[in-house]
Structure formats: C-alpha cells, structure tokens
Specification:
Length: 141
C-alpha cells in the first residue's frame, strides 16, 4: 500500500514539475578528476588549462511557440604562456588517461595521464606532427 501511495504522489506532482520546471545546475554534475584549474608546462613554457562545468540553457521556437530546457556542459580551454584562451574538447577519458582535442588554428590531439597521489597529469601535445611534453598540476575547482 505504501508503494502505491508513493507512486500516486509522484504522479500528482509530475504536472507541477513540468509546469514549474526542474533544471539541472552545474553543481549537480558528478565530478571528474580533470575538472578545475591547472598550472601547466608545455615544452618548458608556463601555461594554464581549465575544465569547467557551466550552465547551458537551451531555447527553441517553432511557429511562435518556444520551449526552454536547462542543462550543463563541460568547457575546456588552454592558454600558452599568457596567450589568448583556446578551446579544448574531450576526445576520451579512460580511467586516468585523457585524450584532448586542441581546437586552435591548427587543431590536434593531446594526451595526459593523471597520477592521483601527486595530482599531476603528464603527457604530450602535438603540433605539426611533432610531440612536445605537457605536464599539468591541479590547482583548484
């Protein structure tokens, strides 16, 4: 009987949920080891990397009727030696191995392997088919 009561209450609340909206917030996303701000060294030059979870609301309209939804997305970016921020995207994440897509003027694939005991990720970048060392130390969320 208690299970039936719970189901009835949930069904009764469903229209309220749909009309008032329940939105996802960036703080509700399960964390990954690479999320946050990193101090890096790329081929012995100082650099910074960030992977941040941000709110991503969407609105679409058709025939004068609009609908909105809430969501979140992960945004990556990289700054080499104080230069402008360049977008990054996640190619893959397999445990502590992280494949990154650098999306600058000459897009390329990067790799980092994270050591949770030191909070350091080491790997490489590529540029014009050459690999360069990349090491990043986790700074904060």
């Amino acid at each position: 009987m208690q299970n039936i009561t719970k189901i009835v209450i949930k069904l009764a609340l469903l229209p309220l949920t749909l009309s008032f909206g329940i939105s996802a917030q960036a703080s509700q996303v399960p964390s990954q080891w690479y999320f946050g701000k990193w101090d890096c060294s790329i081929d012995r030059r100082p650099a910074k990397m960030q992977w941040l979870v941000v709110d991503d609301p969407q609105t679409s309209c058709s025939g004068g009727v609009c609908s909105s939804s809430s969501g979140v997305k992960v945004v990556g970016r990289f700054s080499d030696n104080g230069s402008a921020w360049v977008p990054l995207s996640k190619n893959y994440l397999r445990g502590n191995d992280f494949g990154i897509r650098y999306q600058g003027a000459e897009p390329d694939n990067w790799f980092l392997r994270y050591n949770p005991s030191t909070k350091v990720a080491s790997g490489w970048t590529t540029w014009r088919n050459n690999k360069y060392p990349l090491q990043c130390t986790w700074r904060s969320r």
